């Protein structure tokens, strides 16, 4: 494995859907051991880029590097041992239990010669513990709350035991409590286990709070990338989202906090 400071890298990447070019000569680097968040308006290509980094979409040209090696030249199982991806809105077969779902994360390590082992079981148990799902292990996935289901899918990716985890909008359709629950879990995994986390998020304030590195995408290009404190400002929000905002400092975390302009009820001064 090549020694590099980047878990993933896109070099001169071109991605197309039919005659529609999504990215042309894109360059982006994902720092190892950090949380990276992709932001951008709907349809800008955030999820497409994430899928291409996971080798779920073949580029027209250019290369994706995983730990410094061209991902196209690695076997499927080798990639699955280094990187896990959780797509947006995954669904499980009816009646599948949490334990059965999490066990699927161990498929890269199974073969005709190597069946289920004590090590596989250890990783499943640990994934359930990390996601606080031990008491729900025998419950059907479809019987859980939204936050619990999302934790179950994250547990499956953790059982895969990869240093890099990609998640496409992991907080979509979750209420605020469950959004924070999921993001706190990913934050702890990064901090305690130095896992590289790459996410697509829509909430700019949460992206700023949890990310070490933000990649802002606009019209098939990387408009800006860097720490939230360095790149998230009123100009970026106007140009990337076409939205006029006031950017201040989050009083709890010291990260950029975006307050959009728009119509709303005006509170009059109290007499």
Feature tags:
Rossmann fold, four-stranded antiparallel sheet, alpha/beta, 12 strands, globular, 271 residues, 9 helices, 27% strand
Write the layout of secondary structure elements.
Layout: E1 6-17, E2 20-31, E3 35-39, H1 46-53, E4 61-66, E5 69-70, H2 76-82, E6 83-86, H3 98-103, H4 118-130, H5 146-159, E7 164-168, H6 176-193, E8 196-200, H7 204-210, E9 213-218, E10 221-226, H8 228-231, H9 234-241, E11 245-249, E12 256-260
Parallel strand pairs: 3-8, 3-9, 6-7, 7-8
Antiparallel strand pairs: 1-2, 1-4, 4-5, 9-10, 11-12
Helix pairs in contact: 4-5, 5-6
Protein name: ABC transporter ATP-binding protein
Subcellular location: Cell membrane
GO cellular component, one term: plasma membrane
> In percent, how helical is the residue content?
25-40%
The total of beta strands comes to 12
- Largest beta sheet: strand ordering: 6-7-8-3-9-10
CATH domain class of the domain at 6-91 and 161-260: Alpha Beta
> Largest sheet at a glance?
6 strands, mixed
Pfam family, one: ABC_tran
Protein name: ABC transporter ATP-binding protein
Domain ABC transporter: 8-244
Subcellular location: Cell membrane
